[in-house]
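Action item from last meeting closed. Structure (444 res):
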């Protein structure tokens, strides 16, 4: 039986993942587990004991520990107890835990760790303990990465702690592709970048010579689709993330293509194609380029997004007189309208869990990021501002990232995230203006 706490809720890859020997368990009354609901707002108090230096850790010791703490507390689910309150500290990574000392400061969970640098790699070890049952929560684990990628090892450790305490899939070791913006508001220069989920380590995939919009990861994170105006007209382009090689898709004189996304298996690309003054949704074979229309209506059909099983597509259409959301079979056919509120709806994105659709809604002069169930029920607004738009889901379907733009000639676009309860909205710590994020998969 779980003991529950209710709350509302780079690139040489990590080279090793290993389980460390478990420490002896003590008396227990069930493992600690945090349950994410809409009900109570009380983050779980956790302690993160000072990490041990097991050789050459130097500058990495503090950085690793702080990054793990930032990942966990950034979810809004956990509150770190300050180290000034600690009664005792483990003498070594394998030292017995003085559970009574951690109970006395009301720590529900305790994280211990160690860092070393060996052979050009940063090695991060951690253990997690349920303080009140007096037992380890799973085996200790060890991750290593090149010194230039030490953040990935820290994210991996934080991911494991998050997963054990929530029962949810993690999302810290992941990347976001986005559009970086510079220059005056009426003449923005835009380029595509990829960064860590928390805004660190930005890398540029294009220059600012042509307007670029709406980058979207492939399911494996190795390719990017985006819309380029390099030819003077919007056109879908496919980029290889490692080589940066590009290939224009669906080139057809006199047409415009935009709003592309991959199918969950990466085989298909769904996008909007404007020709002869009409815009419909098309599907393209990513390997052969063969395409076919999925809609055929005089209205504007755009922003398609597959369900995670690949069987359905949600999209935006003004066929009812104003933009609303519709769901149809992935093979086309008669769509079903799922949004019926005042104002207009757009940029729908299906959750990777399959349970919700996130969208942008404009009503009463304000923009909102919202979520609804896939049949349109349970609509809930998560944000409100002058201009919020373009939601994207974390790999575990628990957090939505979006663009927020401020008003006025000096207004800028920034990236923000919010969990699906509408709580814990936070800015992404990227140094500069940015828009149109797309959250990639958890890295291997």
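Sequence:
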């Amino acid at each position: 039986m779980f003991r529950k706490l209710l709350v509302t809720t780079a690139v040489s890859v990590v080279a090793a993942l290993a389980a460390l020997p478990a420490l002896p368990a003590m008396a227990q009354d069930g493992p600690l587990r945090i349950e994410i609901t809409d009900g109570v707002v009380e983050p779980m108090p956790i302690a993160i004991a000072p990490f041990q230096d097991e050789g050459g850790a130097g500058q990495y010791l503090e950085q690793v520990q702080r990054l793990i703490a930032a990942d966990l507390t950034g979810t809004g689910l956990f509150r770190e107890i300050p180290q000034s309150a600690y009664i005792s500290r483990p003498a070594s990574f394998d030292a017995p835990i003085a559970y009574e000392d951690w109970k006395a400061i009301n720590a529900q969970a305790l994280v211990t760790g160690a860092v070393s640098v060996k052979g050009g790699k940063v090695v991060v070890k951690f253990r997690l303990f349920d303080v009140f049952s007096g037992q380890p929560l799973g085996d200790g684990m060890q991750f290593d990465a090149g010194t230039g990628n030490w953040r990935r090892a820290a994210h991996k450790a934080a991911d494991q702690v998050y997963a054990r305490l929530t029962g949810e899939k993690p999302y810290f070791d992941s990347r976001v592709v986005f559009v970086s913006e510079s220059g005056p508001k009426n003449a923005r220069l835009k380029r595509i970048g990829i960064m860590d989920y928390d805004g660190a380590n930005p890398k540029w995939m294009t220059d600012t010579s042509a307007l670029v919009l709406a980058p979207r990861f492939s399911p494996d994170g190795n390719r990017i689709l985006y819309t380029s105006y390099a030819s003077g007209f919007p056109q879908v382009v496919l980029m290889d993330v490692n080589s940066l090689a590009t290939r224009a898709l669906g080139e057809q004189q006199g047409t415009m293509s935009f709003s592309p996304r991959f199918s969950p298996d990466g085989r298909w690309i769904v996008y909007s194609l404007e020709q002869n003054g009409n815009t419909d949704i098309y599907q393209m074979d990513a390997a052969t380029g063969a395409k076919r229309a999925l809609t055929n209506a005089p209205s504007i059909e755009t922003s398609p997004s597959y369900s995670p099983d690949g069987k359905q597509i949600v999209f935006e259409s003004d066929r009812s007189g104003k933009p609303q959301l519709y769901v149809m079979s992935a093979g086309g056919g008669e769509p079903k309208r799922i949004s019926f509120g005042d104002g207009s709806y757009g940029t729908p994105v299906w959750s990777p869990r399959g349970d919700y659709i996130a969208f942008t809604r404009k009503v009463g002069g304000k923009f909102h990021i919202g979520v609804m169930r896939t049949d349109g029920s349970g609509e809930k607004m998560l944000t409100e501002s002058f201009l919020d738009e373009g939601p994207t889901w974390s790999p575990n379907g628990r957090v939505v990232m979006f663009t927020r733009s401020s008003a006025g000639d000096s207004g800028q676009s920034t990236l923000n995230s919010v969990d699906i309860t509408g709580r814990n909205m936070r800015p992404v710590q990227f140094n500069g203006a940015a828009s149109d994020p797309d959250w990639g998969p958890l890295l291997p």
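Note appended to the action item: Confidence is low (pLDDT under 50) at residues 1-17, 24-29.
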